[in-house]
Amino acid sequence: MADRWTQGTFLLVDPEPVGWQACGRFSDLEEGKGVAVQIAGHPIALFLYDGNVEAIDARCPHAAGPLDRGWLDGGRVVCPLHRWKFEIRTGQCLTAPDKPVRHYRTRVDETGTIWVESGDLAK
Ligand code: FES
């Protein structure tokens, strides 16, 4: 995060939003390609889809496949192990509807930092 002190001058900066976690830079994302990040040791997959940052649990509920290494088929992430499909904007599983992954709200601030609403993960 930004330094709060610079050469003896106190800089007023926005505090980190409560319940949100900084998770990398928007400029590091490529459309349709997943990136793995962690919040309190919990793996999250970030995808840039249609210009928006989407965040879902990175572990597939079938057999813990790495969804961050999956690919997008339209708005669906395809697990690289057995090809279960998940809606990137909701986490809904199309292959096994009773096995969704968690979807997280995201935002990108004016510095290009990606924030993920961590909720109870970071406690
Ligand atoms: S581990 Fe993801 S479909 Fe099997």
List keywords for this structure.
single chain; 123 residues; mainly beta; Rieske Iron-sulfur Protein; 4-stranded antiparallel β-sheet; 40% strand; binds FE2/S2 (inorganic) cluster
Bound molecule types: FE2/S2 (inorganic) cluster
CATH class: Mainly Beta
Low-pLDDT sequence parts: 1-13
Largest beta sheet: strand ordering: 4-5-6-10
Number of helices: 0
Q: Structurally, how many domains make up the residues?
A: 1
Radius of gyration: 16 Å
Number of distinct beta strands:
12
CATH superfamily placement: Rieske [2Fe-2S] iron-sulphur domain
The general outline is: globular
Largest pleated sheet: 4 strands, antiparallel
CATH topology: Rieske Iron-sulfur Protein
Element pattern in H and E: EEEEEEEEEEEE
As a percent range, the share of strand residues is 35-45%
How much is the average pLDDT? 88
SSE topology:
Blueprint: E1 5-6, E2 9-10, E3 20-25, E4 34-39, E5 42-49, E6 52-57, E7 71-73, E8 76-78, E9 85-87, E10 103-104, E11 106-108, E12 113-117
Antiparallel strand pairs: 1-2, 3-12, 4-5, 5-6, 6-10, 7-8, 8-9, 11-12
The protein binds FE2/S2 (inorganic) cluster (FES).
FE2/S2 (inorganic) cluster binds next to loops.
Question: Can you describe this structure?
Answer:
This protein is mostly beta strands and 123 residues long. It has a single domain, classed as 3-layer Sandwich (Rieske Iron-sulfur Protein). It contains no helices and 12 strands. It has a 4-stranded antiparallel beta sheet with strand order 4-5-6-10, with no helix packed on it. The model is unreliable at 1-13 (pLDDT under 50). FE2/S2 (inorganic) cluster binds at residues 60, 62-63, 65, 79, 81-82, 84.
